[in-house]
Amino acid sequence: MEHLDDEPYFSYDARQHYVPSEVKHYLTGANGRAIRLTKTDESAGTSLYRRDGEWVPNDHLDVPADAGTAHVTENAVEVWESFKGKASVRAFSNTNLDIPAKN
Q1: How many folded domains does the chain comprise?
Q2: Where does the source fall among the domains of life (predicted)?
Q3: Position 78 in a domain
Q4: Structural domain harbouring 44
Q5: pLDDT in tens, the chain (103 residues)
Q6: Model-level pTM greater than 0.90?
Q7: φ, ψ at 30 (rounded to 5°)
Q8: What residues pair up with 96 in beta bridges, in sequence order?
Q9: 75 C-beta neighbours (distance < 10 Å), count
């Protein structure tokens, strides 16, 4: 709780405690909206997608051509679930490993 303040999604830098592993999480977004959360196991070569509170092998989603993908921490799953998969990309800023840390 010491990391939280009035804006918990933007105040905590999860990269400080990130431990690399074979399982990586990726957030795909377009037009400011989070549209896909993917869990990839690099050692097994598999990808699963978050849908309706569980990991599924295919999400049947047509991703826009201008979509972008960011490497995020496992904490992104909690953010995804709290917004029922309908969050803005900004809600995931504290889980985004691709954003340079602020000093």
Answers
A1: 1
A2: Bacteria
A3: yes
A4: 18-82
A5: 344 444 445 556 667 778 888 999 999 999 999 999 999 999 999 999 999 999 999 988 889 999 999 999 999 999 999 998 888 998 998 889 988 766 5
A6: no
A7: -150, 140
A8: 72
A9: 16
Can you read off the two tokens belonging to residue 52? 């309706």
Query: What pLDDT score does 101 carry?
Result: 65
Residue with tokens 């795909």: 28
Phi/psi region, residue 102 (left: phi>0; alpha: psi -120 to 50; beta: rest), is: beta
Residue 59 structure tokens: 């999400």
Q: Which own/partner contact pairs does 76-82 have at CB distance under 8 Å and 24+ positions apart?
A: 76/25, 76/27, 76/37, 77/25, 77/37, 77/50, 79/9, 80/34, 80/37, 80/50, 81/50, 81/53
